[in-house]
Amino acid sequence: MSGYYPPASGGRQRRGLESAARTATATRSNSRNPAHESAIEHSHERCAALGLSRIERPDHSPLGRSDLTVARERNLRLYSHAAPVMEMLFEQIINSESMVVLTDATGTILHSIGDDEFLGRAAKVALAPGANWSESSKGTNAVGTALIDEVPTLVHADEHFMHANHFLTCSAAPILDPRGNILGVLDVSGDQRSYHQHTMALVKMSARMIENHWLTDDYRNVMRLHLHSRVEFIGTLMEGILAVAPDGKIVGANRGALEQLGLSGAALRMHSLGSLFGTSVSTLVDRFRSPLALPMQVETSDGRPFHIYARFNWPVWTSVTEAAHTSTPASTSHTDNSKPILPETLAAPPVSVPAAGTGLKQLLTGDAQVETVVGKIRRVLNRDIPILVLGETGTGKELLARAIHQDSERARQPFVAVNCASIPDTLIEAELFGYEEGAFTGARRKGSVGKIVQANGGTLFLDEIGDMPIGLQAHLLRVLQERQVTPLGSTKSVTVDVAIICATHRNLREMIAAQQFREDLYYRLNGLAVRLPALRERTDLLALVQRILDQQSPQRRLSLAPDVLHLFQSCDWPGNVRQLFNVLRTAAVMAAGDSVITRDHLSDDFIDDAQRGWARRAHAETPAAVPMSATAPAAPPTAPVLPLAPPAPAPAEAASPVARSLQDLELEAIRQAVEQAGGNISEASKRLGISRNTIYRKLRWQS
Ligand SMILES: Nc1ncnc2c1ncn2[C@@H]1O[C@H](COP(=O)(O)OP(=O)(O)OP(=O)(O)O)[C@@H](O)[C@H]1O
């Protein structure tokens, strides 16, 4: 079978065919699906344009152990929703020489489960945790191609661009959040001889289950409207779900709702219960207050009938709706955002933070550097000064941006976050500026207003701004100066009013010197630059720990056993507060019933990492005294700091100076190649024979 099918007549008709997209053909050899063939053809074209080779060994280097830990921590929420669904999916395909794979939004495999024998074969082509399966790394493949096309994708046998992957058949579905952002990809990969046409349907249904769990979790404190044109489908995977704010605005939707209503996420968010179904929040509260209430029949403005069923937390919801109806905007703009009252809180996935205060106040746990940052920001709040937040991954840059928004006069307007690093270069422009229907061959769905317009009136948070392709920086600068956006393929411009907050872990000045970042854009974005300290530099570790523990376990005060405290203080925390938060969240669950967190409640991974940190410090510092970090606070009386006991031996491979120096050499080689290529990553990747992604990844995690 040829891996490259000629395009169907009519040529480039690949996207917008979501429902028909990449569905498996009855027999792979004789029946063809034109949309599928066209998608594969376009993917192969992209791979050829990237200079990928079909026969060379693909980039098999997985993320380093701690990088994988960080990637997993960043995606812990995705994993916790996906894990039970993956188990269930695996039950369905057991003994079929297959595996179930979960990746993040960049295509990096976070977790996999599968038949042992097949897992071994898959590992040989790096189909294993830590490996990246983006198209630019592995060529045409179901995960990478699904990430680009944003539709369920089947890639079978020699449809894979690289010969090494021809033994595989892979069915992948993107997992989207209620705002339409890609969270990751669920995939079933197996031996191509074990291909079964039902696999794709199973994967799509499973992805939908994860999305629905995510939505329910995001909006558990707001009204959720379950809908379908056929009453018997309410409560099934086929139902649509809408999240409704107390003022009746639609703030979130699952895929089923978008499909049934025939609206894009952005279009739906312009609607309210009234404009959509001619009903109101109070009508639904009255009707569905009783658990025995039956679904209600409504009609859309164009006369299509639907059955709807509302769920909400009674009686919290009714008191909230009353408050929403009686309060003025001025009085609500600084209300407690933990209540489900402000639309912008609902529209964006909630960030889990300790419940002490809201807005900027919640960040104050006693660290002087953080206090200085907050003080500076308060002075420029509401002054139309763009803020640039610097800091390592997981230091709380996005949390700070949300807090600034919450404390600003724009708090009732949208907060829209765009992660420039997780969107492929080719899509950032469309994602930010929007596009008209059919604007370009890569255009998906029915046009899009773009993130800048979505943020109109509110705050646009450009995360990882250092990853914005240089070609696009001039476009962004123009928009920021003129405050007008012209969607791709359109001649009409839209006036926008947005507050800009950017964040990066990179050194933008160095990037300017290397001509990778425009100086004029830098000065436009940098009205005020603040740097969030790494966790290891902070003096408030204990206060932060206690606040997170109190939040995780409000009924039962938890504390750390002395040796755990000791481990925490020794740890380098490469994942910063995100890592701390995740470690404590797991520990609080593990400690159910106990009031003290002991080593037994910590994951082995973390203990290893912390011990390695100990070993590194012990090596760097004088052997006799081995002081705690100069900035470490004194332990509370209940948890005395013990003299540092010798740590349990770290795993051989981690402690080995040879392993570490090899890593250093690799990094050094990458740095040199990038320098010699004048900062041109594509050129450096060719010289080194590794993908651009790998270079970005390795440099990113090391910087
Ligand atoms: N001060 C804090 N108190 C409690 N939790 C925090 C704090 N700062 C960060 N966190 C936790 O850490 C997680 C990561 O924070 P955030 O996403 O803001 O970091 P970031 O610097 O933007 O990360 P990245 O650079 O990887 O995007 C948050 O979800 C939150 O749970």
Describe the structure.
- Helix 22 (541-552) crosses helix 24.
- The chain folds into 5 domains: 34-206, Beta-Lactamase (2-Layer Sandwich); 219-340, Beta-Lactamase, CATH 3.30.450; 348-531, 3-Layer(aba) Sandwich (Rossmann fold); 535-654, Helicase, Ruva Protein, domain 3 (Orthogonal Bundle); 656-702, Arc Repressor Mutant, subunit A, CATH 1.10.10.
- Strands 2-1-5-4-3 form a 5-stranded antiparallel β-sheet, sandwiched between helices.
- Helix content is 41%, strand content 13%.
- It is an alpha/beta fold and 703 residues long.
- InterPro entries: AAA+_ATPase, AAA_lid_NorR, GAF, GAF-like_dom_sf, Homeodomain-like_sf, HTH_Fis, P-loop_NTPase, PAS.
**Tell me, what's the shape?**
globular
Give the fraction of residues assigned to helices.
Answer: 40-55%
- Output the strand order for the largest sheet: 2-1-5-4-3
**What is the H level of CATH, i.e. the homologous superfamily of the largest domain?**
P-loop containing nucleotide triphosphate hydrolases
Question: Cofactors and ligands present?
Answer: adenosine-5'-triphosphate
N→C terminal distance: 46 Å
> Low-confidence stretches at least 5 residues in length (pLDDT < 50)?
1-27, 315-355, 441-445, 621-662
Spatial extent as radius of gyration: 26 Å
- Largest sheet features: 5 strands, antiparallel
Strand content: 5-15%
The tally of beta strands, per DSSP, is 19
